[in-house]
Amino acid sequence: MTGDxxxxxxxxxxxxxxxxxxxxxxxxLDCLGVVALAHGGAMEVPATYRLRALEGGERDSLVAAAAxxxxxxxxxxxxxxGDVLMLRPGACQLHFAVAVDRRxxxxxxxxxxxxxxxxxxxxxxxAGLWRQACDPTx
Length: 138
Description:
Elements: H1 3-11, E1 23-24, E2 28-29, H2 31-38, H3 56-69, E3 72-74, E4 84-87, E5 95-99, E6 104-109, E7 114-119, E8 126-132
Antiparallel strand pairs: 1-2, 3-8, 4-5, 4-8, 5-6, 6-7
Helix pairs in contact: 1-2
């Protein structure tokens, strides 16, 4: 899939209900569910992951395995459509989103109870960025 196709698939999830550990658009999605479905459903992450409970190295290994399973590679620079962003909304919190352009993301918003399209929150530092390894925009 190209970055534009991934971004379009993510936008197609806007409005789906939020559900912790959700992987089915009919029932609900969490942030990793959004990323997985935007990438065609392939992601190696246990349905009951607990990123907050994992230590740095163990957490980083889980994230790296998930990225590899979707054909993603670490990237630098501003986000482009289809990139996966790992953000830090608060202490000991990680949140994943799909970029639709340099300033907007699709993500599962627990507070609003649904998947939304909106700006990248300025107070959520970027903790990681991945891009399709075969995408010609890399």
